[in-house]
Amino acid sequence: MKIDWAALGSVFGVSLVATVALVGLFTLGVIGLSKQEQAAAQGGSAALARTGAYACFALCLAAVAYGIYLIVA
Amino acid sequence: MEHITLLLAIVVVTALVFDFTNGFHDTANAMATTISTGALKPKTAVAMSAVLNLVGAFLSVEVAKTISGGLINEEGIRTEVIFAALVGAILWNLLTWLLGLPSSSSHALFGGLIGAAVMSAGWSAVNAPTIVTKVLIPAVAAPIVAGLAAMLATRLTYKIGAKTDEKHTAKGYRVGQIASAGLVSLAHGTNDAQKTMGIITLALVTQGVVAPGSNPPLWVIVSAGVAIALGTYLGGWRIIRTMGKGLTDLRPQQGFAAQTSAATVILASSHLGFSLSTTQSCSGAVMGAGLGRKGGVVRWSTATRMFVAWGLTLPAAGLVGAGAEFLTKQGTWGIVAVAVLLVAGSGVIWSLSRRKPVDQHNVTDDDLDGDTEPAGVVTTAIAAVTPPPAGSVAAVADEDLKTTIPAPVPTDPAAPPAPAAAV
User: Fold this and answer.
1) What domain of life does the native source organism fall in (chain A) (predicted)?
2) Which of A9-18, B63-72, B388-397 has the highest mean pLDDT?
């Protein structure tokens, strides 16, 4: 009986890193947008927060696109 | 010749029924967290999942080469064995659904196949080491991997989002959750509809209808996709409730972390060569997310029942598969008997489920036990609306009318109000 520990290990590692990274990115994006909303409510603008948020969402979107690619391929 | 085509028709129909049960059994994987956190309305969620399952079925043309992934020796497998295996898998799927326990549909199919193959050709038909590497180790690894990832992700998102107002972020988490749930649905449609296509194609090949090694005919792809989508749309509300509410209480952040972890684990495992069960990954992710929040609790009694179901899946489906194969070996009458038993068993399980129905209206109720106050009100309200009791009430009213109308009307002053009351 041969157990493919290497494959299991890489599944473990990739899942852990990818999940934490994606959730972290997305949270940063959500926070960025809420900062921008608060700033807008006070009449100001938070361009940096907004740009950062969009960058985070773009990365998440890329991850989703890669996920779809993996399903199709 | 007639016998062959009848058997083939039965196998195709049974495979599609299995596909259907697979659909509603696994809706929870994609949509339980989305429904319980309120990101999507229950019916919207299952509709979206159904559409993505259907799309997923058409996405990939690479059909599963072996239906059991090397668990049993598939050379010279007889059509009856496939039929018996499907019966075992369907009945186990229905039973776990009745109990509201998420368990792997693939493992149920594996169990049925093993049981039927052993009954048909003896223990040598089974590849024992593969059971350990393909079923036992993944069953332990999947919840740990997904759970740990979801737990760390939940901690992280609570930590960096600690200073923000939940009002502003709720919408964002909702979108994220829907995206991850969509990915899980799509992957499910591709993987599991494919499995059914593989089974039907294998049956067609064994009966010489299509040439070995050929792609499934279009009608097979379409019917497998539609069957899984219909099953998904039906919604396995009992399992959704266990996964979304029973294991732990989920907030939007946790739901997002859990669903993202599940989607990542499913995609990573299927592409790095160590297949993990979707159901077990999702359940693990939900529990991990429950542990990740401060003050979050996991209901270990529910979790334990689920673990027990996972352990029983292979042997239980195997026993039913073996029993079914024992009957189908006896000839045509045996095959008919198994088909009748399958229908009867499904009917019994369905009627048992009507005692305490779970549907899109009470799927997110806080109370888990239908007997006590809050959910009891909903359940009785629904029970009152469903045909059987309403029908019997109407019948009683009818009898009242029939008995009161011929009664001597003018002599008894108490009589007139009676028909009015009955109406």
Assistant:
1) Bacteria
2) A9-18
* Optimal mutation site among A4, A30, A66, interface B, most CBs of chain B within 10 A: A30
Residue B308 is assigned to a structural domain of this protein: yes
Determine the residue type at A48.
Answer: L
Give the domain extent around B400.
386-422
* B332: exposed, middle or buried (Cβ count in 10 Å: 0-12, 13-18, 19+): exposed
Residue type, B115: G
Tokens at B157, concatenated: 């998102």
| Domain match, B315 and B415 both | no
B342 and B392 co-located in one domain: no
Average pLDDT of span A37-66: 84
Q: Does A13 touch chain B (CB under 8 A)?
A: no
Which of A10, A17, A27 is best to mutate for the B interface (most B CBs within 10 A)?
A: A27
Closest CA–CA distance from residue A22 to any residue of chain B (Å): 8
pLDDT at B387: 43
Could B59 and A71 be called an inter-chain contact, meaning their C-beta atoms sit closer than 8 Å? yes
Would you state the torsion angle of the CA atoms of residues B409, B413, B414, B420, taken in this order, to the nearest 10 degrees?
60
Q: Do B264 and A71 touch (CB under 8 A)?
A: no
Q: Is residue B260 part of a domain?
A: yes
B274 to A23: CB separation less than 8 angstroms, yes or no: no
Q: Searching chain B, which residue's CA lies closest to the CA of residue A5? A: B274
Helix (H, G, I), strand (E, B) or coil at B72: strand
Token pair recorded at residue B308:
């027990």
Structure tokens at B333: 């009458």
Work out the pLDDT band at A2, boundaries 50, 70, 90. Answer: confident
CA–chain centroid gap for B192, Å, is 12
